[in-house]
Design goal:
single chain; mainly alpha; 10 helices; 2 strands
């Protein structure tokens, strides 16, 4: 399968460079990331040494970022994707049961507070590690690495199509936003959220129809959906 086409999402995550981390084989980076995350997730919640372990994990990620010569802010700015997990972690101490304690004038659950701390630490380290790999590995290299790891070819092909299609959908949405703003619509204003919702619905329909056309074009060229190439 060809994977030479770039995509907007990949370009926004990837930071070009010539460091040893950038030049490392993609399949080795995938194995290293999965192994590292298994170690992080396996850290017991009740262990007294867990905070020290989390600090060491974070230091390892930071060391890789510095070795790759990727600006730290480049990674930090993209960690906004973690925001839903942060909100969930903040709510856990308030909804969890068990003994209560007071923090900053608020009464929260002690077990919930501990669970939230571990959840936030593991989530932050995981997101930072994944973004570090994404910033030093292009989509093409990543797909090639998955192929070398013997991942089923059909799954790799589906991932390749998904990465390409993300660029198509985001490009279409960008053009729709420009058209809405040129007509006096401000998507950030609550008064225009109805227009924004209709635009999202139109984007969904356009994306579905475009996917159907691409699928039919592939079938007309002999593509066999049951056998990855």
């Amino acid at each position: 399968m060809g994977a030479g086409h770039g995509h907007g999402a990949g370009r926004s995550l990837h930071h070009p460079g010539r460091s040893r981390v950038h030049r490392a084989p993609a399949h080795l980076k995938v194995v290293a990331l999965v192994t590292f995350m298994l170690v992080v997730v396996a850290t017991p919640r009740g262990a007294s040494w867990a905070p020290v372990a989390y600090a060491a994990y974070g230091a390892c990620v930071l060391a890789v970022v510095l070795a790759a010569r990727v600006p730290v802010l480049f990674v930090v700015r993209r960690m906004v994707v973690e925001l839903p997990f942060v909100v969930f972690a903040v709510l856990v101490p308030f909804v969890a049961t068990g003994p209560r304690t007071e923090v900053l004038g608020l009464t929260v659950s002690e077990p919930g507070l501990v669970a939230a701390g571990h959840l936030l630490a593991k989530g932050t380290i995981g997101v930072a590690a994944a973004l570090t790999m994404a910033s030093t590995t292009t989509a093409r290299e990543l797909l090639g690495g998955l192929e070398r790891l013997r991942m089923p070819a059909l799954l790799v092909e589906i991932m390749g199509f998904m990465l390409r299609y993300v660029d198509v959908v985001t490009g279409e949405w960008s053009r729709m936003l420009v058209a809405m703003r040129s007509r006096g619509c401000d998507p950030r204003s609550p008064r225009h959220w109805g227009t924004l919702a209709r635009g999202l619905g139109a984007l969904f329909i356009r994306s579905y129809e475009r996917g159907e056309r691409v699928h039919l074009a592939m079938l007309s060229r002999g593509y066999d959906v049951g056998r990855a190439r």
